[in-house]
Amino acid sequence: MKTKLLLLITLLSVTLYGQDVEKTTFSLNEAVAYGMENAYEIDYANKDVEIAEQRVRETTAIGLPQVNGAVDYQNYLKQPVSLLPAAAFDPYNQIRDLDDYYQVTPVPGNPVPGAPEGFIPINFGTKQNISASVILNQLIFDGSYLIGLKGVKVYLKQGENAKSKTEFIVKQTITNAYTYVLLVEENLSILEKNKTVLESNLNQTLKLVENGFSEEQDAQQLQLTLSAIINEINSTNRVKASAYKLLNLGLGLDINTPITLTETLESLLVSNLNLGLTSQDFDITNHIDYQIANTNKESSELLMRFEKSKYLPSLNGFVNVGTAANNDQFQFFNNDQKWFASSVLGVNLSVPIFSSFSRDAKTQQAKIDLLKAETQLTETEQRLTVELQDARNDYQFAVESYNISKDNMALAESIESKENTKFFEGVSTSFDLSNAQNQLYSRQREYLESILYLINSRVTLENALNIK
């Protein structure tokens, strides 16, 4: 029983652990999909959309009832003094300060004196008072608020458009980085093969030199070529480490996370060779760049309407309900403390009359901004048309370049193989062999570069066609 229980716990732990393990094996499509969920740029774009959604809520709330409460407490450490005419309160003319007022005695022999001059200092109210109130404000009409509601919806749309644009960029970044890693891996594989061939040739040549059938210079020439290949392998290994880190960064993974790529350059080539893309239909109004420019135009239109709405009056209503208590001591919560309620209902109408032409200046600025946005929309249409044509041409050229570089590499391999045979048959020199080898290495690099160019141009064409 204990054994079964232990086995169950172990299996459960493994299952739960497996659910938390971070994905580290990717095909290209899986890498793009993973990046769409976890890339840093996507995270930023999602947060911008969330901010825009909260901005919509914030603006909408301006037109809804606003309720605020307030509590005020005052304790006069020294009460303020008010001055009243002495003639009304001091027929005996004996008050000189506030204390004298409370100790008035008749003057013997002068019961009815004349009216005194000056003022009497008096305290009004109590030393302490407290009040509480609740205020409800309601916007009844404001033209700028109505325009603002439409404006924040456009603002949200801009955030969503920016997110879509970011998705295109992330896809291109991950595809390029993924392809580059495969390219580096393939380059290393080719270099290692070249190294193996050179080491074999060098060993055979050294034996020929020992037996007097070849010159030492032939071995030295091969050694130079081998040293160059070894140096290139070391350099490419450093590039490989950096390439993996860049891919991890694009995916949103820790840069030091080991990952495995399941694609090969050959499989990517098969999926990227599609000349049908060069003739695919294109609706410019669906392109994300056009939508961004069009949304900016909508924003400028609303801005102009917003400035014009400032010429309209605004109307607000309010209700204020409160209560207050007064006492010389802090006894406000005693049962015998009296509280006095108050309430008021009102409206406030604000009518713009004259702003020294500042409103007109802002309206003119908005009109100019709208004209600018319309021009930018036209420019975007023209630019997207040109970019699409360039992308189609580049992709077609990339396919042609790939086919040519592939054939050239095959020819260079054949030449190098024949030259290698001639060298060991003694009918060719080490310089001829070295030239053939260097020519092969150049054609190999061109072949790899043509693959990278082909895949990158494919992604660029898809972006130009607005294909996700």
Layout: helices, strands, pairs:
Blueprint: H1 2-20, E1 25-26, H2 28-38, H3 40-62, E2 66-75, E3 81-85, H4 98-101, E4 119-123, E5 128-142, H5 143-210, H6 216-251, E6 260-261, H7 265-272, H8 288-309, E7 314-327, E8 340-350, H9 358-425, H10 430-464
Parallel strand pairs: 1-6
Antiparallel strand pairs: 2-5, 3-4, 5-7, 7-8
Salient structural properties:
about 475 residues; Outer membrane efflux proteins (OEP); 2 domains; two-stranded parallel ribbon; 8 strands; elongated; disordered N terminus
Report a brief summary of the structure.
By secondary structure, the chain is α+β, with helices and mostly antiparallel strands.
Structure description:
Helices cover 63% and strands 14% of the residues. Mean pLDDT is 87; it is low at 1-20. The chain has 468 residues and is an alpha+beta fold. The longest helix has 68 residues, at 143-210. The chain is built from 10 helices and 8 strands. It folds into 2 domains: 22-70 and 136-464, Outer membrane efflux proteins (OEP) (Up-down Bundle); 81-124, no CATH class. A 4-stranded antiparallel sheet has the order 2-5-7-8.
Biggest sheet statistics: 4 strands, antiparallel
Tally of distinct domains: 2
Distance between the termini: 55 Å
Principal-axis shape equals elongated
* Structural class computed from helices and strand pairing: alpha+beta
Beta content: 5-15%
CATH class of the largest domain: Mainly Alpha
CATH architecture level-2 label of the largest domain: Up-down Bundle
Please give the count of helices. 10
Strand order of the largest sheet: 2-5-7-8
Compute the CA-based radius of gyration: 43 Å
Q: What is the string of helix and strand elements?
A: HEHHEEHEEHHEHHEEHH
